[in-house]
Amino acid sequence: MWTKNMEKKKTYPTLSKDIKTEIVIVGGGITGALTAHYFMKQGMRCVLVDKSNIATHATSASTAILKYEINQGLKNLMSQVGEQNAQHAFLFGYQAVMEISQIVKEINSSCDFSFKPAFFYTEDPRQTDAMEQECTARQAIGIHCELFTQENNKDEFSFNFESGIYSHYGAAIMNPVQFTHDLIKFNVDKGLEVFENTTIVDYNLSSHQSILTTENEFTITADKVIICTGVNALEFFNHEKPFCQLYRTFSILTKPVDNFIGGKDSCIIRNDQKPYTYVRPTLTNEIVIGGEDLAIDRLDGDIANMGDRDPLALQHYHQLLRRVRKMFPQINEIKTACWFHGLFIDTKDGLPFIGKHPDYPGAYFNLGYGSNGILNALIGAKLISQDVAGKNPRELDIFKFNRY
Ligand SMILES: Cc1cc2nc3c(=O)[nH]c(=O)nc-3n(C[C@H](O)[C@H](O)[C@H](O)COP(=O)(O)OP(=O)(O)OC[C@H]3O[C@@H](n4cnc5c(N)ncnc54)[C@H](O)[C@@H]3O)c2cc1C
Q1: Which runs of E-coded beta strand occur in 3-152?
Q2: Kind and range of the H or E element at 294?
Q3: Which residue's CA lies nearest to atom 41 of ligand 1?
Q4: What number does the ligand 1 atom closest to the CA of 228 have?
Q5: The domain that contains 401 carries what CATH number?
Q6: pLDDT category, 47, cuts 50, 70, 90?
Q7: Distance 123 CA to ligand 1 centre (A)
Q8: Buried-state track 89-116, b at ≥16 Cβ within 10 A, e below 16
Q9: Mean pLDDT of the chain
């Protein structure tokens, strides 16, 4: 869905000789692109490889809602990871949205980045007190948000809700595929080397120097290895008890609609149901609606291997379409332009895994698992590049492996 207005995408060669570098980044989705950007800023020699093409996996399926709030909520997160860590995690997300906007400017990206307000709401009257406490906790750390109730704010929304938190800042939308391509191109012009269709099949990892082997039996010798392979990184942790949950998630993009108001100032909308639904506008008046997440217990099972037109997938798309029609009754006709589904990983606390894993001291992992994959990718890129530069950021502790 993100490629329809894009000019022909730039392609990169396949690795065809042995090379040496300071930093090798495995994975050319949005996480690899951001990671390369932060290392390039430090003036380091970087190589990025991808087993297929740039931005064709989770990044191309993403609805690309950038929002500071972690699905668990701040109060809940405090009880899981402690008050300070939870507050840091929320503020990191808040700043990360600003940082992405600065990168968009710096690289002159045509990814349609746009700040949006965000509305997180409940239809359950029993949740109103909890919603109020959540809002107060966020305000206490400087997040610009307020509590809305149906009683006071109903005219500003086309759908029913009991109460909700309206965040004026800390959220945005963009085209993640365009952004990833623009970011990689910007850094290639500054010396980043990129190889597509280059699969790493063997990792000989060491804290001093690692050797990665491609399926064509070429080697990349690097001082530091940063693994940004998203869902594929699970192959490193097969032997562990589940430390995260894999889901298949569904989205619909509608055809352009007249007068999409939906929520105050065309905000991004998410409800508190399980599974949740989220809705966001595009700059060309389409609506993106997503959710209907299905947990995956077996990688050889039906949900893990579902095709595009699987009857179960169609059921979930129709369910999303019914929801969006119910939420926006003032729109005469809502028609589907395209639908798609993809895999994503959530964690118990909604936070990503960033840093070294005790079993692989020779590599850093930037795994934006959790509620906000894209913002987590930026947070990981920043912290890992700081760590490699010897700054030892203490915040890595919040996102470390084995924290629960
Ligand atoms: C339907 C859907 C909706 C989503 N909506 C949102 C949202 O609204 N907001 C948000 O923040 N996040 C969202 N996410 C999550 C977000 O899209 C992901 O967190 C993000 O795109 C992950 O980017 P990535 O670069 O880590 O992974 P990917 O884009 O999957 O890239 C990983 C890359 O690694 C490469 N690779 C894997 N193994 C190897 C190997 N051995 N050798 C070389 N290369 C390899 C792959 O080819 C791939 O290109 C959504 C995800 C889905 C599926």
Answers
A1: 19-26, 46-49, 65-67, 114-115, 118-122, 145-149
A2: strand 287-296
A3: 200
A4: 26
A5: 3.50.50.60
A6: very high
A7: 32
A8: bbebbbbbbebbbebbeebebebbbeeb
A9: 93
List, in order, residues 6 or more apart from 273 with CB less than 8 Å away: none
Q: How many Å apart are CA 91 and CA 141, to the nearest integer?
A: 8
Same domain, 191 and 78: yes
Residues 80 and 29 in one domain: yes
- Specify whether 136 is located in the same domain as 237: no
- Determine, yes or no, domain membership for 5: no
| Predicted pLDDT at 397 | 97
Residues 282 and 183 in one domain: no
User: In this structure, which amino acid lies at residue 52?
Assistant: S
The total domain count for the chain is 3
Q: Whose CA is nearest to atom 51 of ligand 1?
A: 62
Per-residue pLDDT tens over the stretch 318-366: 999 998 898 888 888 899 999 989 999 999 999 999 999 999 989 999 9
How many Å lie between the centroid of ligand 1 and the Cα of residue 12?
19
236 found inside a domain: yes
Ligand 1 pocket check for 26: Cβ under 6 Å:
yes
Q: What is the pLDDT of residue 261?
A: 65
Cβ–ligand 1 contact at 59 (below 6 Å): yes
Q: What is the pLDDT of residues 162-177, one digit of tens each?
A: 999 999 999 999 999 9
Q: Would 3 be classed as within a structural domain? A: no
* pLDDT tens, position by position, 253-308: 999 988 666 788 889 999 998 888 999 988 888 999 999 999 998 878 889 889 88
Tell me whether residue 2 is in a domain: no
Distance 365 CA to ligand 1 centre (A): 14
> Which distant-in-sequence residues (6+ apart) come within 8 Å of 109 by Cβ?
103, 178, 179, 182, 183
Residues 81 and 89 sit within 8 Å (Cβ to Cβ):
yes
